[in-house]
Design a protein that fits this description.
Blueprint: H1 2-19, E1 30-38, E2 43-50, E3 60-69, E4 72-82, E5 89-94, E6 105-113, E7 116-117, E8 121-126, E9 136-138, E10 142-145, E11 149-155, E12 165-168, E13 171-178, E14 183-190, E15 194-203, E16 205-215, E17 220-226, E18 232-239, E19 252-255, E20 258-259, E21 263-264, E22 269-275, E23 283-291, E24 294-302, E25 314-321, E26 325-331, E27 341-350, E28 353-362, E29 366-370, E30 377-386, E31 397-402, E32 413-417, E33 422-426, H2 431-434, E34 438-447, E35 455-459, E36 465-468, E37 476-484, E38 487-488, E39 492-496, E40 507-511, E41 517-520, E42 531-537, E43 545-549, E44 555-558, E45 568-575, E46 582-590, E47 604-608, E48 611-615, E49 630-637, E50 649-653, E51 660-663, E52 670-679, E53 682-692, H3 696-724, H4 726-733, E54 740-743, E55 756-760, E56 769-772, E57 779-782, E58 785-788, H5 826-830, E59 833-835, E60 840-842
Parallel strand pairs: 10-16, 40-46
Antiparallel strand pairs: 1-2, 2-5, 3-4, 3-6, 6-7, 6-8, 9-11, 11-14, 12-15, 13-14, 15-16, 17-18, 18-22, 19-20, 19-23, 21-22, 23-24, 25-26, 26-29, 27-28, 27-30, 30-31, 32-33, 33-36, 34-35, 34-37, 37-38, 37-39, 41-44, 42-43, 42-45, 45-46, 47-48, 48-51, 49-50, 49-52, 52-53, 54-55, 55-56, 57-58, ...
């Protein structure tokens, strides 16, 4: 009990000593306290001084500050004062998260040292705003940081009614509160930057409001400091983010406490230069960036003697210019550069090419450029830097010069051989190879067995080839040189091989890629100086192109500005040997395959029973814009009543040499066939054909009809021809028979045989007379009639030569010797007279039998006794063996 009473007494005594004025330690208070505010920056500023009792006995003082809005505490803060700061004026500022004009604000301050606290000292910082004639929003035109939250207030006019507060733009209203009868507050979150009045707060209506500007505090980086002349420092940095503040609120920069600013808005790069004494050793170079929203500091630690960024060389010029070397000189505007060990880089640009060369030396101010191209325009760019502690290259200084001319470089020569002639071709020399304008080309050639060139020809400068007629059985050595005003180039020689007409080289296919061909081949031991790859379109005449590959390389990428998609090219690979080039391989391919154009097939068809075969001639290489890998034929019926109408079928082949496809087992109908070629890029070159199939009966009927029509046409033609040439046919088949005329005494005494002749009418034949040796023998006239003394046939015989068939008149006959002939004797003479030699029949008409001394005898004027010859075999007249038989009366 006594212990608890003693503890309570000591605790109370200690408390009184700590808080009361009589603890033996002087109280430290506040004096001369002042409070102000800045409405534009919405800040409260309070200043005060230490009481005289604070001057001794205190190592550290703590001042507590409290902000009150009316009588309501809103904010608490502390300020620490060290022993060396005691006795000076202290200040404190604060930006509240609401408008200062919304209510009166006061600040009170007290000191605290260990366990001793002084009483509060207060000051009025912001007086209360009196009501206006109309609603007023606070703060006006304030700048805020992106992402902040702020409370705006609206003070109504006396007796005014509050309706609403709202925010527009890139912001969000949080809540609305009532501060007093005439004052209302709206808390707003500000999301994005706005350097114009795009975000605003309104009270009651759009007529009463305030603009809000939202931005960022400074954000910079990459501070680097260097020296360019060893008498000043130059720092540069980058702006990482735009503040989005207006020009009057832009960011201010200070280097080493001195203001400077030179920024490029496009590149967001800033630079600042100040004169300083550059000494060996590192030091801090501090940059400060500040705007209304905040402040930022950057520091770079560097020894500027190791960070020398030189200025560009001055007065760069080429003093001595030759065909293949030039002396380039320049000067320095900074005297201290002559003491530095420099590294200079010279960049030569010519004919679209760039080469870089490095030179070094103390105070370097010249360089000799060798290995240049004659008659070539150059641009030389020079830049330098320190060699020992290289920091940066200087800017470039440029100069141009033109080297003197020289003889041309050797030509790149190749050949294009044929059966009748060889074409020697060479590439055009570029400007950096010709070293002047080419005047002429000279071509010399001779057989490989001959020691000196035997033939020479000059070629105009605009031509790049020459055609030579060489002996195909001999190798020839051809040399080509180019000449300009400075002289003639070294000869470029090539050996033309013998022609081997029977040699066949297999051709393999190649596929192009990336606008050209990538070719590879196995190494060949015969290649002593490399390889040559040449190419040309496979069809038509062309100018060959080529590329030479060094020894040891067996791949080449073939590129040409003359390559065309869809054109087939032939590539040949040669081994370069001491003699003639040796052909190793041939390839064919397309740089890029394209679709074969439609309508390339000339389709024909024929029906084979229930099959239809569609054929086409082989597609020419000129029409092939891709490799054909086969063919496909689609077909569908056109008949709506057919069961498979609209359904497409196909048949295909992977033989690129095929020229026909057959659709089998087709029902009789109308079909459409479409033939397409198969390529690596798809099916193309489609051509369609419509056909109508016929049945087997239709085919038979058609064959019969065709046969009948053919026979009818043939007979018609024969009839027409016979009708139009009847006279000729009659002459050949049934020639006219000459009409015989009997003259002379053919009836004589029975004892004396007589010879008679048949007289033909000269109007019917050119042959006039046929001699008849003996018509009839032993005929004796009796009483005016003709009788026969002795029995026997009446024979008329004649021996006639085949070469002398003609009727000769009987010159010794007289008209008296012609007896009267009975009509019964006429039939034998009316019979057929066959001439075996000529196979003709002669008809004897009775009107040509004449009486002696009388003209034609009519049957009524003479009496003829009947003589029956039928029994005596006297039935006709036969020139070769003519017999007549008469019966006795």
């Amino acid at each position: 009990m006594f212990t608890w009473l003693l503890f309570a007494t000591l605790f109370c005594t200690g408390t009184q000593l700590g808080n009361g004025p009589d603890n033996g330690v002087p109280q430290c208070g506040v004096r001369d306290m002042m409070g102000t505010h800045d409405s534009s920056k919405q800040k409260i500023l309070v200043t005060w001084e230490d009481d005289s009792s604070c001057s001794t006995g205190h190592d550290l003082l703590i001042y507590e500050l409290q902000v009150l809005r009316g009588n309501e505490p809103l904010h608490h803060d502390e300020v620490f004062v060290t022993a060396d700061q005691i006795g000076s004026t202290h200040s404190w500022s604060w930006s509240p998260p609401w408008a200062l004009e919304c209510a009166s604000h006061s600040v009170r301050v007290r000191s605290r040292n260990k366990n001793h606290t002084s009483p509060w000292s207060s000051v009025q910082a912001v007086p209360e705003t009196s009501p206006q004639q109309r609603p007023k929003l606070y703060p006006m035109d304030r700048i805020f940081e992106v992402g902040s939250r702020f409370t705006f207030c609206c003070i109504l006019e006396p007796g005014g009614q509050f309706h609403k507060m709202y925010a527009r733009g890139n912001s969000t209203a949080v809540n609305t509160t009532k501060i007093s009868n005439q004052t209302y507050a709206l808390t707003v979150d500000l999301h994005g930057p706005s350097d114009r009045c795009r975000t605003n707060v309104r009270c009651n209506s759009d007529d009463h409001g305030t603009c809000v500007y939202v931005g960022y505090r400074p954000d910079v980086g990459d501070l680097k400091c260097e020296s360019r002349d060893l008498m000043s420092v130059e720092c540069q940095w980058s702006v990482k983010r735009d503040t989005h503040l207006s020009r009057k609120n832009r960011t201010e920069y200070e280097l080493l406490g001195r203001p400077c600013s030179a920024c490029d808005k496009k590149s967001n790069k800033c630079r600042c230069k100040q004169s300083v004494e550059v000494n060996v050793g590192e030091r801090n170079w501090t940059l400060t960036a500040q705007n209304v929203l905040g402040k930022m500091e950057l520091t770079d630690q560097a020894d500027l003697t190791k960070r020398v960024h030189m200025f560009a060389p001055e007065n760069v010029a080429a003093l001595t210019v030759n065909a293949r070397n030039v002396t380039l000189e320049w000067s320095w505007g900074i005297q201290k550069y002559h003491e530095l060990d420099l590294l200079c880089q010279i960049q030569l640009n010519y004919y679209g090419q760039t080469h870089t060369r490095n030179y070094s030396g103390v105070g370097l101010n010249f360089a000799v450029l060798s290995g240049l191209i004659p008659n070539q325009a150059y641009t030389a760019k020079v830049r330098c830097g320190t060699k020992q502690h290289f920091w940066k290259w200087s800017e470039n200084s440029a100069s141009t010069f033109h080297t003197k001319g020289d003889i041309p470089d050797a030509l790149d020569v190749w050949m294009q051989t044929g059966s009748n002639q060889t074409i020697i071709v060479w590439k055009t020399l570029l400007a950096n190879q010709s070293h002047g304008e080419i005047i002429t080309y000279e071509v010399t050639w001779a057989k490989a067995s001959e020691k000196k060139p035997q033939h020479k020809r000059e070629i105009p400068p605009h031509e790049r080839s020459v055609a030579l007629s060489l002996d195909a059985d001999e190798e020839h050595l051809v040399a080509v040189t180019a000449q300009n005003m400075h002289g003639m180039s070294s000869p470029s020689a090539i050996t033309v091989p013998r022609h081997h007409p029977g040699r066949v080289m297999n051709v393999s296919l190649i596929t192009g890629a990336n606008g050209g061909f990538h070719v590879s081949w196995p190494a060949n031991p015969a290649a002593s100086c490399g390889y040559v790859v040449d190419w040309c379109p496979s069809l038509g005449s062309c100018s060959v192109e080529w590329v030479k590959v060094p020894l040891g390389v067996t791949t080449a990428t073939v590129l040409s500005e003359n390559f065309t998609d869809g054109v087939r090219y032939s590539l040949s690979i040669y081994a370069c040997t001491p003699g003639a080039p040796e052909l190793l391989e041939r390839r064919e391919g397309y740089v890029r395959e394209t679709e074969i154009q439609p309508g390339q097939f000339e389709l024909t068809w024929k029906q084979l029973g229930s099959d239809v075969e569609v054929s086409w001639p082989a597609i020419s290489l000129r029409s092939q814009s891709a490799f054909i890998q086969g063919y496909v034929m689609y077909y569908t019926t056109n008949s709506e009543h057919h069961q498979g109408h609209g359904r497409m079928s196909s048949v295909s082949t992977d033989n690129p040499e095929a020229t026909s496809l057959t659709a089998r087992n087709l029902p009789v109908s109308s079909y459409t066939f479409k033939v397409m070629s198969l390529t690596s890029i798809g099916e193309c070159g489609d051509t369609s054909l419509s056909v109508t199939m016929s049945s087997a009966t239709d085919n038979l009927i058609m064959v019969i009809i065709i046969s009948l029509v053919s026979v009818f046409v043939l007979l018609s033609l024969i009839t027409i021809l016979c009708y139009r040439h009847w006279a000729c046919v009659k002459q050949k088949v049934y020639p006219p028979i000459p009409k015989p005329i009997l003259t002379g005494n053919w009836l004589t005494s029975l004892d004396k045989p007589a010879q008679y002749r048949l007289q033909y009418d000269s109007r019917d034949s050119e042959t006039d007379i046929v001699e008849v040796p003996e018509l009839c023998s032993k005929l004796t006239p009796v009483d005016g009639d003709i009788s026969q003394e002795e029995e026997g046939p009446c024979v008329v015989t004649q021996t006639q030569s085949p070469n002398a068939y003609c009727n000769q008149p009987l010159r010794n006959s007289s008209p008296a010797a012609l007896p009267l002939i009975s009509k019964n004797l006429l039939p034998p003479f009316r019979g057929m007279l066959e001439n075996p030699s000529y196979n003709v029949a002669l008809h004897i008409d009775e009107q040509y039998i004449q009486q002696p001394g009388v003209g034609s005898v009519s049957p009524s004027s003479r009496e003829l006794q009947d003589v029956t010859c039928a029994e005596k075999n006297c039935a006709g007249y036969q020139p070769q063996s003519l017999k007549e038989t008469s019966s006795p009366i």
